[in-house]
Amino acid sequence: MVIRRAVKSDIESLTEMFSKMYILNSEFDPLLQVPEDIKQKVRASVEDALNDEKSLIYIYEEDRPYAAIKIKLDEREFYMPSKVARIEEFYVHPAKRRGGMGGDFLNFIEEELKKMGVALIIARFPSKNLIAVSFYSKNGFREIHNEFAKSVD
User: Fold this and answer.
1) Phi then psi for 7, rounded to 5 degrees?
2) Helical (H) or strand (E) element with 120
3) What is the DSSP string of 30-93?
4) Is 62:50 a contact under the CB 8 Å cutoff?
5) Are 90 and 129 in contact (CB under 8 A)?
6) Cα(104)–Cα(69) distance, rounded to whole angstroms?
7) pTM to 2 decimals?
8) Which end of the chain is less congested by CB atoms within 10 angstroms, N or C?
9) What per-residue string of b and e applies to 41-52 under the rule 16 or more CB within 10 Å gives b?
10) Which of 101, 19, 40, 42 is nearest to 66 (CA)?
């Protein structure tokens, strides 16, 4: 098992993993439907993140990449602690889910973020994704915000 920072040669595997994550998210609510060009959009996002000093992408691999996480470092203007890390994307291959890989990966990320002075990690995911709710709750996260949406079509 190796956890490492992503590099440009990882763009294809990251694009595949994060695209699958968004496609899965689309099953939770009609307002989360993905566009036909989701892979191109995800690829551009990954490329941007690899060139952004406030973005971090890590890969968890054994014989190949099985999980990836994309994090954005941020400052909260009106709340303390102000230095936070926002988990924007987190994908674990289905064959590796519920086996401890996600929790181990998250623990590693937490230690890395502590070294950077980050005091709070925020995760955002579809509210009806009960697997994510359970995963983050088991790993010490708790709900602090709600986001509501209404289509105005």
Assistant:
1) -130, 170
2) strand 120-123
3) GGGPPPTTHHHHHHHHHHHHHT-TTEEEEEEESSSEEEEEEEEEEE-SSSSS-EEEEEEEEEE-
4) no
5) no
6) 12
7) 0.93
8) C
9) bbbebbeebbee
10) 101
Residue 15 in tokens: 């694009």
**CA 59, CA 69: separation in Å to the nearest integer?**
7
Q: Both tokens of residue 71?
A: 């994090």
pLDDT in tens, the chain (153 residues): 899 999 999 999 999 999 999 999 999 999 999 999 999 999 999 999 999 999 999 999 998 999 999 999 999 999 999 999 999 999 999 989 888 999 999 999 999 999 999 999 999 999 999 989 999 999 999 999 888 999 998
Strand partners, 124: none
Length of the chain: 153
Distance CA 145, CA 56 (A): 23
